[in-house]
Amino acid sequence: MKGYCMKPGPFRYIAAQSVEEALDVLASAEEDVAILAGGQSLVSLMNLRLARPDIVLDINRVPGLATVQADDSGARIGALARAAVVERDASVGRYVPALITAIGHIGHPQVRNRTTIGGNVAHADPSSELPGLLACMEGTVTLASASRGAREVGWDEFFISVFTTCKEPDELVTSVNFPMAPGWRYAYDEVATRHGDYPLAGVSMGLRVDGGVVQEARVSVVGVADRPVRLSSVEAAAAGQDASAALARDMAGIARTECPASDDAHVSAEHRRWLAGTLVSRLMASMVDAA
Amino acid sequence: MTGEPDIRITTTVNDVTVEAQVEGRTLLSDFLRHDVGLTGTHVACEHGVCGACTVLVDDQPVRSCLMLAAQVDGCRVDTVESLGTQDDLSPLQSAMWAEHGLQCGFCTPGILMTVEGGRRAGLDVRQVVEDALPGHLCRCTGYQNIRNAIESYFAQGVQA
Fold first, then answer.
1. Could you read off the pLDDT of A179-230 as tens digits, one per residue?
2. Distance from CA of A109 to the nearest CA of B (A)
3. DSSP class of A101
4. Which of A111, A209, A243, B106 is most buried by its number of CB atoms within 10 A?
């Protein structure tokens, strides 16, 4: 034993060398297993002893999970792909630039060097950027288990509540999928106390505009509820309308009514709803200008 | 088993091969300070917020309090001790000295490693000052002198 204090509680450390090995550990363990990917949330929680897993299953040495693919059908990001790598990927920048914007709001570069896309989504922090973008883009998460193989679930099924997903204890997130369909464009913006902090409100917006008329809109907000929220009244109000400054004002007004929010140590619920409306308005302005 | 230093690792710290037995829960920051004896890596918040413990793992700046020592098996780790010495400062350390880029100095080792990592990764001075420096909390300087030092270092065009 070393003569110094340890921040995390004791655990058994297992470094899986393959997906199969990781799934076997998850399937056979009778104790509480925490999957260690980037560790930027998990190790922090373990240091504070808010998390005290019996086993830490390190998947960082598993080959084949860090893939990054993007084309006009969207981006398929392997669970272990680092945020910093995706952020610099030219094809993601070309086909899904909103993903680059959202990643740029996650912590700081030193954190993004470790953060993984799979870990970020699996952690399901209700203020986290990527779950919000996934909700806006009607994205999916691919899960694998030893006994049942792979399954792909939509964002609405995946995110249940704070730090809670539909992932079963024997399952591993293997990829996160941000689909693109013809004519759609997406953007992300947020307001945080300081850059790199979790947002007070973060809005993702998708628009399909044809001939200056909004055909369809998708709007999601993070930081306001226990999981990402879609603003269906805002989306419905935009459909069929001219993509104009007046529409942006209307959408912002509806967002300020529809968006759920609660008070916390930083800001009031009313302020949070106001921010969500402001972000809707800003995104509309930037996306219509960019059209 | 838990609570026993039963994990064998081999890592290269500042160009020196280090073999050690660690517990699974040993943080990279504590390993560097207590097992390797390199106390230049400072720990403050120990949950990834402050940046004081930043080191390079395979040339990338990371929070050493958010990695396990077991994870650097086979990796290269560079700490602030890899830069200059008190009598022979590195170009970046000299710039920090000349621009008065520190007061108490507690946050400085982490900042130095972020800037070195940025330089090695080919980032430009704007990316380092605007994107990476905000990943460090300094409660003394108000940052202006640190920014001046980084700009001075990059203006020298010297590859450290």
1. 999 999 999 999 999 888 899 999 999 999 999 999 999 999 999 999 999 9
2. 6
3. H
4. A111
Q: Which of the pair, A237 or A291, is modelled with greater confidence? A: A237
Q: Tell me which chain B residue has its CA closest to the CA of residue A197.
A: B49
Q: Which residue has the tokens 């800037």?
A: B115
* Chain A nearest-CA residue for B53: A110
Task: For chain A, give the mean pLDDT.
Answer: 96
CA distance B113 to B132: 11
In B, minimum Cα distance to A6 occurs at B26
Query: Least CB-CB distance to B24: which of A44, A56, A113?
Result: A56
Does residue B1 belong to any structural domain of this protein?
no
Residue B17 structural domain:
7-81
Domains of chain A as residue ranges with CATH: 12-58 (3.30.43.10), 68-179 (3.30.465.10), 201-289 (3.30.390.50)
pLDDT tens-digit readout, A127-153: 999 999 999 999 999 999 999 999 999
Residue A290: exposure state from Cβ atoms within 10 A (0-12, 13-18, ≥19): exposed
Of the candidates B23, B66, B114, the beta carbon closest to that of A40 is on: B66
Predicted confidence at residue B104, as pLDDT, reads: 96
Same domain, B25 and B56: yes
Segment B39-60, tens digit of pLDDT: 999 999 999 999 999 999 999 9
B54–A196 C-beta distance less than 8 A: no
Whether residue B2 is contained in a domain is answered as no
Rounded to the nearest 5 percent, the helix, strand and coil shares of chain B are 40, 15, 45
Closest CA to A187 of A132, A257, A253: A132
Q: Compute the distance between CA of residue B81 and CA of residue A27 in angstroms, rounded to an integer.
A: 44
Considering its fold, how many domains does chain B have in total?
Answer: 2
> Average pLDDT, whole number, for chain B?
95
Asked if residue B86 is part of any domain, the answer here is: no
